[in-house]
Amino acid sequence: MTPAHRHPDENGDVSTTGDCVLSLDHGNLYVRQDGPPDAPVLLLIHGSATSSRSWDALVPLLTPRHRVIRIDLPGHGRSAEPVDGDYAIPEQGRRIGTALGRLGIERAVAVGHSSGGYAATALAEQRPDLVTALALINTGPGMDAFIAPGPTAINPAQWPPTDEQIRQFASTGFRAGYQVPQELVDELRGMTFRALTAAMQASTAYLTQQTLPDRLTTLGKPLQVIFGDQDRRWRPSSAADYRVVRGAQVEWLTGAGHTPILEEPSRTAALLLPFLQRRADQVCAMSTNRE
Prior knowledge:
Layout: E1 5-8, E2 14-22, E3 29-34, E4 41-45, H1 59-62, E5 67-71, H2 89-102, E6 108-113, H3 116-126, E7 131-137, H4 163-170, H5 182-190, H6 193-209, H7 212-219, E8 223-228, E9 249-253, H8 260-263, H9 265-290
Parallel strand pairs: 4-5, 4-6, 6-7, 7-8, 8-9
Antiparallel strand pairs: 1-2, 2-3, 3-5
Helix pairs in contact: 2-3, 3-7, 4-5
């Protein structure tokens, strides 16, 4: 495992910054860490067909008060495809839990964008001791909220696709007129067709088995839901479905599409940070009471 690099930030505080590749039983998993090593841990999980780089614009807004950990899901970014070919969401949750154990993480708030919210939920289902709260950003609650894609799907016979084919395929992942970043185009092209389709099918299977609001109601974890009201993949009004979860905080971002973490990072952080601070205050209060 490559050690993290420690250096003083502009305020003179020591931060932990670094990349590592964890060797797991079914394939290597890439991890990126940023922020103070003793700060509350924030786990960021990206969606299908992208990578941990989708959080790049948001991370600097979170690291002043959080140790931010990002992972590339199996078959995405710099993580290997699973040797057993298992992309199932519960298996993704298990691998993330194993990775956090290797890093010595005992508690974390899990934040998922899009289908990354399913892996975050699966992790919380398996490790309720580890996940203290969940934040979901444009994560579809159930298949009835999915907006069927148009004729822009990529043909396996044309793999690897061209830049233009990828931009057309990924266009609904952003508000109308938003330019898909070149680094995300390059990373999607670097995936295999098997990884792309298997990951998407795994998300569908997870939602078909049980909707996310039903899963989260059973979990009983503090929940924040942020949804761009111009989402072109999931019906924006479906965010209200999460209100069945007791105490759920549901908020819409006006003018944002499916990926506000790139489209509107400052506004996304402005919604996310107060929720995270309340979770940190609660954990601190619980620790004080135990003492």
